[in-house]
């Protein structure tokens, strides 16, 4: 299975109603051999326009996060649990998550990251449940390390606050800095 097949499948996808209003689906971006994968929620206005993840205001915070760890966008892989923009950036619906996340699952299979950082509640819930952990509120699990046990060793999971949350709540910046120190040690 290859990333270009996933890209083609997403571009023609009509599995949920979000396809009707999308300008561009946002499949993901970065190194398909990256060790670390960041997973956000869904494209916003700018991402839908450009077809790229985290290019708006939250993207600016995301870029600060990665560069504070000495990483460039090209060193990591960035995607979302939902590939098409929900109207007015509303929360994704359970049905949309159900229809769309098989693409994310395939991306994880191709990339085989050693570390997954879900960003915010929706991504953290999906990823923790996928690997058999209990999903808790992001503020209870940010910066904690979840180790997936498996024959060949699964990925580590370190949930982080969503970058957009730092725009509205400056008090989260110190917490994010501490959490990123944990991430850096575990790459
Ligand atoms: N918020 C997200 O969760 N993902 C993006 O790509 C942009 C904003
Ligand atoms: Fe398909 Fe996902 Fe877009 Fe829905 S959000 S149309 S499932 S790619």
Structural class assignment: alpha/beta
Number of strands: 6
State which percent range the strand residues make up: 5-15%
Order of strands across the main sheet? 1-3-2-4-6-5
Averaging pLDDT over every residue, what do you get?
A: 96
* Overall outline: globular
The helix count comes to: 8
C-alpha termini separation: 25 Å
Largest β sheet strand count, sense and barrel closure:
6 strands, mixed
- The low-confidence runs, each spanning 5 or more residues with pLDDT under 50, are none
Oligomer: single chain
Brief write-up:
The protein has 187 residues and is an alpha/beta fold. It has eight helices and six strands.
Describe this structure in words.
The chain is of the alpha/beta class and 187 residues long. The chain is built from eight helices and six strands, in the order H-E-E-H-H-E-H-E-H-H-E-E-H-H. The protein has helices at residues 3-11, 45-50, 57-68, 94-111, 120-130, 138-141, 163-168, 172-185, and strands spanning 29-30, 36-40, 77-80, 115-118, 146-147, 156-157. A hairpin with an 8-residue loop joins strand 5 (146-147) and strand 6. The two termini are 25 Å apart. The structure holds uracil (URA) and iron/sulfur cluster. Iron/sulfur cluster (SF4) binds next to helix 4.
């Amino acid at each position: 299975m290859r990333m270009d097949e996933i890209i083609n499948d997403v571009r023609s996808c009509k599995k949920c109603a979000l396809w009707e209003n999308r300008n561009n689906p946002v499949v993901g971006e970065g190194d398909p051999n990256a060790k670390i994968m960041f997973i956000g929620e869904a494209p916003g206005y700018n991402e839908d326009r450009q077809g790229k993840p985290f290019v708006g205001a939250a993207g600016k915070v995301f870029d600060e996060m990665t560069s504070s760890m000495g990483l460039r966008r090209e060193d990591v892989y960035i995607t979302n649990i939902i590939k098409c923009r929900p109207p007015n950036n509303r929360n994704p619906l359970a049905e949309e998550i159900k229809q769309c996340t098989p693409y994310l699952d395939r991306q994880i299979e191709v990339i085989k990251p050693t570390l997954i950082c879900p960003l915010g509640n929706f991504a953290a819930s999906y990823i923790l449940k996928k690997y058999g952990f209990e999903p808790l509120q992001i503020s209870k699990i940010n910066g904690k390390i979840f180790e997936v046990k498996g024959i060949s060793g699964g990925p580590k999971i370190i949930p982080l606050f969503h970058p957009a949350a730092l725009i509205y709540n400056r008090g989260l910046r110190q917490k994010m800095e501490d959490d990123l120190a944990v991430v850096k040690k575990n790459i």
